[in-house]
Amino acid sequence: MKKLLLTAGILAFLTPAYAAPYVLPSPQPGALTSYDWQPTYSLDFVYAISGNSDNYGDMMGPRLALNLYSNQVADFRHQWSLSVAALWGDKTKTFSETIGTGTETHDWKGDQFAMPIMLGYNLNIAITDNVLFYIGGKAGVVIWNQDNTDNITLRQPGNFNTYSTRTDSDTKSEFTYSIGAGFKFIASESIQINLGYEFQKMYVDPNLTQHVLSVGVGVTF
Question: Hey, how many other C-beta atoms are within 10 angstroms of the C-beta on 135?
């Protein structure tokens, strides 16, 4: 009996041990993959050049957007976005008109604010592994506010002058759209640099067209 137990122990010692096979862990339920819609938050600095310089000045400010990308590894990537911008600018001009026997001179200034809230779509095309070219458009509503100040000087014969100031303010919501293109430079798996141009039209009165230049950063969490 002792010999049997000793023999069994020796055989057990000499017999190679086999580990259980390793199984790769499966993705956690609800986890994003490279084929899911990827949320990316972007913050851009915007400079909008006025296409109607008689009534509007250039505007500038930040733009924040939530972007959803269809596939982070495909050559063609669909992107939907919801963006809001806050843009400030002003316009000044001086003009004169004849009033009876005198001349009325106006020193006018308009302080302008625009908040475009827009839904957009871009088609992103991979040029290299780290560079995307995009083209697309947006549409939505712009909240527009303008505060006007008009300093008036009325010059009469005999060097008799009168001075007055008129002020008014106007706030409204109107339709706006834009079309544009640009580049995105992939700095890492979670950070990209954005550089773009848009042609934008706001249906305020009178209508305002803008050439919009933007640079910013996008972050994927």
Answer: 14
Least confident of 4-8, 151-155, 194-198, 213-217: 4-8
Q: How many other C-beta atoms lie within 10 A of the C-beta of residue 52?
A: 15
- Give the span between the Cα atoms of 61 and 74, in whole angstroms: 33
> Token digits for 186?
């992939």
CB count, 10 Å around CB of 127?
12
In angstroms, what CA-CA distances link 206 with 61, 102, 121? 22, 30, 27
Asked whether residue 96 carries a pLDDT value surpassing 60, the answer given is yes
Token couple for 127? 């040029």
Phi, psi of 70 (to 5 degrees): -70, -35
Nearest to 40 by CA among 180, 187, 190: 190
Per the structure block, which two tokens stand in for 177?
A: 């759209």
